[in-house]
Design a protein that fits this description.
single chain; globular; transferase; metal-binding; 323 residues; 14% strand; TIM Barrel; alpha/beta
């Protein structure tokens, strides 16, 4: 594993077949190459966010089709979690469009975490920046993962977000880790960043101690009304290269093929799995953007000979990696 951005950029430049071979070699050393972890993501509080993240449809500063909605009721969340489990998801991720949660918000969210845990599912939350003591409260409720993405490199970050800084994100990750919560942390490709930025972004993930257990790699969804909606599409092979480099540099992390799958044909997703992706967001919708339906994913898995990673197998793999 390297934290050196220049060395990581050298990986990006390898001949494609050599890069995929290296990624597959690393992948097979640490994971079942034909198993994919399934997570379902639900927006428990949609729209009206005060932040100006340039890719996000939920910012109150952008003119998008998303309307602000209040926090979901507990029974609605439990119903969604049960449905996700019935479809095969092992992790249920709850996202709220906040700069960060107010203390009054944490009790109802904690109730959701406890209720989902009672279904024997892993829990993940993405609630924005965390204040003092909030990570501990979430940990006490039983939260397994906290998602807070770095998005891109420190150098490119100011082109994407202006209302909070890179260090703010690192501070939230540090607080979650200190509270004993595992990290889900990745970024978005295709926001106009360079290959060097992608290399530096992966270096930042690798420098976290320990690196995130879960690394979502998103492809920008061009949402009308957001500042980044007119960015040119990222070359698909460059996206596959990013997956492969992330797998090599972060050998024990689950690399999640995340937002943007709806616009990926089957052969592109197949290349991403070949490059070391071994997790997906599973279900018809992410926070506000469409996602391939469960039937489509099952059909793709059947064509590729992939199988969902069940809870027992996932626990065994985690135990093996920490042994």
């Amino acid at each position: 594993m390297t934290h050196d951005a220049a060395a990581i950029e050298t990986l990006f430049a390898l001949p494609f077949s050599d890069l995929i071979y290296r990624a597959q070699t690393v992948h097979r050393r640490h994971f079942d190459p034909n198993a994919v972890q399934l997570s379902t993501l639900v927006s428990i509080k949609t729209g009206g966010c005060s932040e100006d993240c340039g890719y996000c449809s939920q910012s109150a500063r952008h003119h998008t089709a998303v309307e602000s909605q209040p926090l979901m009721k507990l029974d609605e969340v439990v119903t969604a979690a049960r449905a996700a489990k019935a479809r095969g998801a092992t992790r249920f991720c709850m996202g709220a469009a906040w700069r960060g949660p107010k203390d009054k918000d944490l009790e109802p969210v904690s109730e959701m975490i406890r209720a989902v845990k009672a279904l024997d599912m892993e829990t993940c939350a993405t609630l924005g920046l965390l204040g003092d003591g909030q990570a501990e409260q979430l940990a006490e409720a039983g939260l397994d993962y906290y998602n807070h993405n770095l998005d891109t490199s420190p150098q490119y970050y100011a082109n994407v977000v202006h209302t909070h800084g890179y260090q703010d994100r690192l501070d939230t990750l540090r607080q979650a880790r200190a509270a004993g919560i595992k990290l889900c942390c990745g970024g978005i490709m295709g926001m106009g960043e360079s290959r060097r930025d992608r290399a530096q972004f992966i270096a930042e993930l690798a420098a976290l101690d320990p690196p995130p257990e879960s690394v979502p790699i998103n492809l920008l969804v061009h949402i009308p009304g957001t500042p980044l909606s007119d960015q040119p599409a990222l070359d698909p092979i460059e996206f596959v290269r990013t997956i492969a480099v992330a797998r090599i540099v972060l050998p024990t992390s689950y690399v999640r093929l995340s937002a943007g799958r709806q616009q990926m044909p089957d052969h592109l997703q197949a290349l991403c799995f070949l490059a070391g992706a071994n997790s997906i967001f599973y279900g018809e919708r992410l926070l506000t953007t469409p996602n391939p339906g469960s039937d489509a994913d099952r059909a793709l898995f059947e064509k590729l000979g992939l199988k969902p990673l069940g809870p027992a197998a996932e626990a065994a793999q985690r135990a093996a990696k920490t042994a």
